[in-house]
């Protein structure tokens, strides 16, 4: 049986590609490629698609879809936090030990407000973490960003531009701290090597002895940590 898939077309794309994301198949195709040609390509990749679908669905089966409700699990630097949602006259989000308390008002939208409060909390905590990291980063180091900030990306952990500006997804801070550190170092190394060539990875290796394990973790868990439908990952068994 052929896998069900959606097609994303682009005028810039010159060839067809397949991505399996969160248990769904997306085919990226040139704007004017005939659908029968897309279908024929998908048929040649059936074994590959089914293998990846099976692997991803096994992962998703161990995670509950995010509802932003009492009792759900979130993570801060890999450590579990229990979410508690309550009501009061003022909105707030704060952590007490292993509990993250999101307080909304009676007029708040229950489908949106807890999520937005928690996102803002993560952004602020992540910014504080980055400030501390760069305060401890040697001032005479050759890899010095001009500015760093926290935002939201749907499919990547961080970004570096040629102006020396670093930006990271708040979702990164759901990951263990050693993984977060490696992503920051990864983007710092782009200040010198704006590519993923051999010299770039050599530079990364000079600043991190566990970057390969971090890259493996990111590939394994990015599908669900970056996905706002889950924002979590299953522990290895």
Sequence-ordered SSE layout with sheet pairings:
Layout lengths: L4 E6 L6 E5 L2 E7 L4 H10 L1 H15 L12 E4 L2 E9 L4 E5 L2 E6 L8 H24 L10 E5 L6 E3 L4 E5 L7 H13 L8 H10 L3 H15 L12
Parallel strand pairs: 1-3, 5-7, 8-10
Antiparallel strand pairs: 2-3, 4-5, 6-7, 9-10
Helix pairs in contact: 4-6
3D architecture notes:
The structure is a single chain. The protein is of the alpha/beta class. It has helices at residues 35-44, 46-60, 113-136, 177-189, 198-207, 211-225; strands spanning 5-10, 17-21, 24-30, 73-76, 79-87, 92-96, 99-104, 147-151, 158-160, 165-169. Strands 4-5-7-6 form a four-stranded mixed beta sheet, covered by helices on one side. Strands 1-3-2 form a three-stranded mixed beta sheet. Helix 4 (177-189) crosses helix 6 (211-225). The longest helix is centred in the middle third of the chain and has 24 residues, at 113-136. It is globular, with a radius of gyration of 20 Å.
């Amino acid at each position: 049986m052929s896998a069900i898939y959606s097609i994303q077309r682009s005028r810039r794309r010159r060839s067809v590609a397949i991505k399996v994301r969160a248990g769904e198949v997306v085919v990226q195709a040139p704007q004017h490629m005939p659908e029968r040609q897309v279908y024929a390509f998908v048929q040649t990749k059936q074994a590959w698609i089914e293998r990846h679908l099976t692997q991803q669905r096994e992962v998703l089966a161990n995670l509950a879809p995010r509802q932003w409700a009492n009792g759900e699990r979130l993570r801060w630097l890999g450590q579990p936090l229990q979410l508690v949602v309550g009501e009061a006259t003022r909105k707030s989000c704060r952590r007490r030990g292993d509990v993250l308390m999101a307080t909304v008002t009676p007029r708040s939208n229950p489908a949106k407000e807890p999520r937005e409060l928690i996102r803002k909390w993560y952004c602020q905590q992540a910014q504080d973490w980055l400030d501390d990291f760069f305060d401890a980063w040697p001032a005479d180091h050759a890899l010095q960003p001009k500015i760093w900030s926290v935002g939201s990306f749907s499919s990547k952990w961080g970004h570096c531009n040629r102006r020396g500006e670093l930006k990271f997804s708040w979702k990164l801070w759901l990951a263990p701290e050693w993984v977060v550190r490696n992503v920051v170092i990864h983007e710092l190394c782009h200040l010198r090597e704006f590519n993923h060539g051999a010299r770039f990875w050599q530079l990364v290796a000079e600043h991190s002895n566990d970057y390969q394990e971090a890259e493996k973790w990111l590939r394994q868990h990015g599908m669900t940590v970056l996905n706002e439908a889950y924002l979590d990952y299953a522990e290895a068994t």
